[in-house]
Amino acid sequence: MKNLHVIDHPLIAHKLTIMRKKDTPTKDFRELLDEIAMLMGYEVTRDLPLEDLPIETPVAPAIGKQISGKKLAVVPILRAGLGMVGGILKLVPVAKVGHIGLYRDPETHEPHEYYCKLPEDIGERFIIVVDPMLATGGSAKDAITMIKNRGGKNIILMCLVAAPEGVACVTDAHPDVQIYTASLDECLNSHAYIVPGLGDAGDRIFGTL
After folding, report:
1. Looking at residue 196, what is its pLDDT?
2. Is position 108 annotated as part of the catalytic site?
3. Among 67, 148, 166, 203, which lies 20 to 30 A Cα-Cα from 18?
């Protein structure tokens, strides 16, 4: 899994453990996801290019650094992906936000598109696709395809928990896309839920259990 990056920061591991607990309240679950998304955001933006910027400090002239060229776009896969947007925007408030709507057929587990709205200049942006769960990988694979069809090129996928099946699906379809996750879990069960996972992230974020 050469395209997979597991971010093993102690704070992320600690917060993820609390999220996995079935009795963690909706409010806590939502806040923890926001915090983890921000912590992961530091890692996924590590390689953004920098350029020199002459500035004046209160003491003397100096040469600082600023991000060069790469504008950011965050694209959540609805609806659970919305829970990760706020954390990234705290790091990069000027990032534009697109939205992709996909729902999973309860019997076939196949994703179906119902909405796609992206920034007009998506082809010029460094794109972070966010979805807490990478289970079968079908939704992420199709979302990335939709972005590419609309001109997106520089894309990464950021998720909270991934299954090996989902990683393989996305990597096979999009070998140019790097995947960042807080945990690579064991497998999928017969209902295509990640094991041990943390349940349905969307329901737990929005309190619709």
Report:
1. 96
2. yes
3. 166
Token pair for residue 82? Answer: 């919305």
- 200 included as an active-site residue: yes
Judged against a pLDDT cut of 70, whether residue 109 lies above it is answered with no
Q: Specify the pTM.
A: 0.91
The runs of H, that is alpha helices, within the chain are: 10-20, 26-44, 82-91, 138-149, 164-173, 201-206
In tens, the pLDDT along 50-70 reads: 999 999 999 999 999 988 877
Q: Is 166 exposed, middle or buried (0-12, 13-18, 19+ CB in 10 A)?
A: buried
- Take residue 96 and report the two structure tokens written for it: 């534009």
Nearest to 128 by CA among 174, 79, 72: 72
Q: Which of 162, 157, 148, 164 is nearest to 179 (CA)?
A: 157
Which listed residue (20, 24, 28, 104) is catalytic? 104
Q: Which of 13, 5, 107 is nearest to 47 (CA)?
A: 5
Instruction: Indicate the pLDDT class of residue 106, thresholds 50, 70 and 90.
Output: confident
